[in-house]
Amino acid sequence: MTAAKPVLDVRELEVSVGATPVVRGVSFALAAGQRFGLVGESGSGKSLTALAIMGLTQAPVRATGGEVFLGDVDLLTLRRRQLDRIRGSRISMVYQDPGASLNPLMKVGSQLVEAIRLHTPVSRDAASRQAIELLGSVGVPHPSDRMRAYPHEFSGGMRQRVMIAMALACEPEVILCDEPTTALDVTTQARVISVIYKLCQDRGVAAVLITHDMGLAAGFCDDIAVMYAGQLMEVASTERLYAEPRHPYSRALMSATVDLEADVARALPAIAGQPPVPAEFGVGCPFAPRCPLAIEECVAGPVVPRRVGGSIVRCIRAEEPLPAEEASPIIGRVTADAHGGDHE
To answer: Engineered SS bond to 30: which of 8, 118, 216, 317, CB 3.0-4.6 Å?
Structure first.
């Protein structure tokens, strides 16, 4: 989606569970400072994609094809010891549950210092000063005092800020955020996302936001990829995707998004049916059984991604206009506010 040399370039990534592919042909690239979204229903393969990029899959799950370039290095070709040197220093991850990611028996400051010294040859005092600065940069009040606190003494939102600080400890080029605000209230969610947004702007960190929340993605991302059944259905700029979604699945997701400015008495549309299980993936479009526009050609053979306007779409009917009855009130309006929120 950008002409600049990517800091992260994912090419035709395939992830399998045993012999069964669950992520198929995923490709996207990020430039420095770019904010990219992976959206879709639970089970669509978003988190598996992130874990494969980080080299954190465990048997029987493994990357079975494609390339993942961090700069000029293909992460999929590295041994574990080589990956350990890169994870945390050049590429980091913020997980969904900070409570499960922080050691409850160690003070927050000790965990941050340990992360810094693991990748940087600095003294403990220098690492401690850096950790205090990091906590302050992500909005933790009284950071020098909070260094001595244990994780359980932080609120959920503050624990997530600690995880962001830890992910940024060695100034990585890329940060992957896997549903980083799922367990947080709306106000705290906005604050955490604002912290990540500002860090991308100020430090040039490229970020991947993994979420099922289309509204959250609209307010954070420059570009969005809509994922379903382990494949990217549509990749476009945020403005283009919300103004003119091309894939029926993209349209369905946005129609099912709560819009507080719309008629609150309006029944919220639901997507009929269930996503397929990996063993049932066929050669055609995996969304066809749930798609109101599906025709015989949709399941007869492979559906390859193609450029339609400024979007890359995996759909043979992508050039057809959006039916008026399918349009959601959120479409065409969200883009006016997508980057206009308070990210200070």
So the answer is: 8
